[in-house]
């Protein structure tokens, strides 16, 4: 979740076809101020848990990645009501190492899309409390700069 891509054309978003309005988030996008900075609002949300997944810390990064791990549970939020424009912002924001894919969530009949991490992780779980206390303010500044650069490139 570090702002890996830029671009504005509709052709750049083939993986967004058919995603709907919901997104499971488990890291920095759980924080209202981050969403406000990136898409200008905090969408409606519901709490959710993914079975056999964990929210892993990533080497040298403030944000996490969702990875498969049997026997574990990964908590997060389902954002609801995302517009196409908001999806495009989020998709641009995500690093290329994230792959958008539907996952099953406990208590939900239909899979919900999420960004799954495809590169190396470290052994530790990502801790949202530590992120909030030690990194959130700096991350928000970084998000604002990223958003400004994205707007300038359009």
Automatic annotation (TrEMBL):
Keywords: Transferase. Signal peptide: none annotated. Residues 23-119 form the Gamma-glutamylcyclotransferase AIG2-like domain. Pfam families: GGACT. Gene3D superfamilies: Gamma-glutamyl cyclotransferase-like. The keyword Transferase applies. GO terms for molecular function: transferase activity. PANTHER family: AIG2-LIKE PROTEIN D. This is Putative gamma-glutamylcyclotransferase. The lineage of its organism: Bacteria, Bacillati, Actinomycetota, Actinomycetes, Mycobacteriales.
């Amino acid at each position: 979740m570090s702002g890996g891509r830029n671009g504005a054309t509709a052709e750049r978003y083939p993986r967004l076809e058919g995603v709907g309005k919901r997104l499971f988030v488990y890291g920095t996008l759980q924080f209202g101020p981050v969403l406000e900075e990136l898409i200008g609002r905090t969408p409606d949300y519901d709490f959710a848990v993914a079975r056999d997944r964990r929210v892993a810390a990533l080497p040298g990064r403030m944000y996490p990645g969702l990875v498969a791990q049997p026997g574990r549970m990964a908590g997060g939020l389902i954002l609801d009501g995302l517009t196409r424009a908001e999806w495009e912002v989020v998709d641009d924001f995500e690093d290329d190492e994230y792959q958008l894919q539907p996952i099953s969530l406990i208590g939900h009949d239909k899979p919900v899309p999420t960004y799954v991490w495809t590169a190396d992780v470290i052994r530790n779980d990502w801790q949202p409390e530590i992120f909030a206390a030690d990194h959130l303010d700096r991350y928000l500044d970084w998000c604002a700069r990223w958003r400004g650069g994205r707007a300038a490139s359009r």
